[in-house]
From TrEMBL:
Domain FAD-binding PCMH-type as annotated: residue spans: 16-194
One GO term describing the cellular component: membrane
Signal peptide: none
Keyword Ribosomal protein in record: no
Domain of life where this protein originates: Bacteria
Membrane-spanning residues: none
PROSITE patterns with a match to the protein in the record: FAD_PCMH
Protein name: FAD-binding protein
Database matches in Pfam families: ALO, FAD_binding_4
Length: 469
């Protein structure tokens, strides 16, 4: 094996790769600081990598690439009251490299849980918050809204503690800012007591879903009437798979907890989960996509079969088991956050373009929802948000489809997910984010030499001051 092979890195989607001059996996915060300071002194750029689940080249560097997997300890669990949090808040501080599935296991063992999660748990905490990972829920924000403190290592190797009360600007751009302020070493999250969710998954006609979404102030709509609602629309059909996840009432939860403790999920439930998630959602779906690749004209019929093959099911499980699904079929993804009131028009325009273009898309379109928040670079900043995620199988061309969707969402001020494919640059982001210039000013003051920059951050945030001189 050549030295270049040993150093090379490729992301999960195989849309980005790098051959850095140096790779390292620090054992602790002190070693991390030393590695960063040495690289900066040598004029070497520095980036960190977690699971590589970003579809963008966010982690790419030709300098020092840091693997944070060994920074994965649960440092402490404490009641809140500091930094403006409520006195009853539960704060958990973890190494920034901990993977979400490991964090979920550790929290569950302590009787705790994240308030909301995305549907993949392979990412590191640092990567998930830095790129704006989110779940779904009209009254809930993305993962960055659950962050209450961050420790970040600067170009001088020094560790800086940040929170809403201490260096708030640095805190904002460190909790969601693509790692441009430094390398995250630890994150403090506000968590909640562990809870169960009742999951209801049902195929519905798409028109029925769209008619019943409801407005932001409608408590009876599908979005407002459920703790977590999302749906998957199968292109070339008028069918969707709906997912409604809701907390149990306290007395009902007590009964279910006792049942799970004494009997577990049972053989029938375990078999059903394997069939639905492992076979239909992965094994069979891989075959569907391969057939669509070989014979594109059959895609509409395959989608119609897929849309009807998933039978309704209802089950109760711990929250992180319900939020997360297994994704092993490799794909490309672009996701845009649009004002919720424009969602139906956006989906209608995508449907019309697919009809006109003759493009064949075997992957469903995923739609989720989020509450407005005040995180500077959050895709849900200041507005009720619907997320429209379009996917294409990795063996199929995605460019024409993604370009068309990007033009459609541009008409309503769509904001792309920072970790998924898109074509926007800093000038457009300045129009889309009210606090964009504030975030760039923090980056410029914190890292004027661009130690933590790469081509992607230069494109989306503009180059650091040293590169502009």
């Amino acid at each position: 094996m050549s030295s270049d092979d040993a150093l090379s890195w490729t992301n999960w989607a195989r849309t980005a790769s790098a051959t850095p001059r140096r790779r390292a996996s620090p054992r602790d915060e002190a070693e991390l600081g030393g590695l960063v300071a040495r690289a900066a002194a040598e004029g070497m750029p520095v980036r960190a990598v977690g699971a590589g689940h970003s579809f963008t080249p966010a982690a790419v560097t030709d300098g020092l690439l840091l693997d944070l997997d060994r920074l994965s300890l649960v440092e402490r669990i404490a009641r809140g009251g500091a930094d403006g949090t409520d006195g009853d808040a539960i704060l958990v501080t973890v190494g920034a490299g901990i993977r979400l599935h490991r964090l979920n296991e550790a929290l569950a063992a302590a009787g705790l849980a994240m308030r909301n999660l995305g549907d993949i748990d392979r990412q590191s905490v640092a990567g998930a918050i830095s790129t704006g990972t989110h779940g779904t829920g009209a009254r809930l924000g993305g993962l960055a809204t659950q962050v209450r403190g961050v420790r970040v290592v600067g170009a001088d190797g020094e560790v800086r503690e940040t929170s809403p009360a201490h260096e708030p600007g640095l805190f904002e751009v460190s909790r969601l800012g693509l790692g441009v302020t430094g390398i995250l070493s630890a994150v403090t999250l506000e968590v909640v007591p562990a809870f169960l969710l009742r999951a209801q998954e049902e195929p519905w006609p798409l028109d029925r879903v769209l008619e019943r979404l409801g407005t932001p102030d409608d408590p009876d709509g599908l979005v407002g009437g459920n703790d977590h609602f999302e749906f998957y629309w199968f292109p070339h059909t008028r069918r969707a798979l709906t997912k409604r996840n809701n907390r149990l009432a306290p007395d009902e939860e007590a009964v279910e907890l006792e049942r799970l403790r004494t009997t577990g999920p049972g053989p029938v439930a375990r078999a059903r989960t394997w069939v639905d998630e492992e076979l239909l959602s992965n094994g069979a779906f891989e075959l569907v996509n391969r057939l669509a690749t070989a014979v594109p004209r059959v895609t509409p019929r395959l989608n119609a079969v897929s849309a009807r093959a998933l039978a309704p099911r209802t089950y109760v499980a711990p929250s992180h088991h319900v939020f997360v699904t297994s994704r092993r079929v490799r794909f490309r993804e672009m996701e845009y956050a649009v004002p919720r009131e424009h969602l139906v028009d956006v989906l209608s325009s995508i449907d019309a373009w697919l009809d006109r273009s003759g493009e064949h898309v075997p992957f469903p379109v995923e739609v989720r929802f989020a509450a407005p928040d005040d995180v500077w670079l959050s895709t849900a900043h200041g507005r009720e948000t619907a997320y429209v995620a379009v996917h294409q199988y990795a063996r199929l061309p995605h460019e024409r489809y993604f370009d068309a969707v990007e033009r459609i969402v541009a008409e309503v001020g769509g904001r792309p997910h920072w970790g998924k494919m898109h074509g926007l640059a800093a000038d457009r982001f300045r129009e889309l984010y009210p606090r964009f210039d504030d975030a760039v000013a923090v980056r410029d003051a914190t890292d004027p030499e661009g130690v933590f920059a790469n081509g992607y951050t230069d494109r989306v945030l503009g180059p650091a001051p040293a590169a502009r001189r």
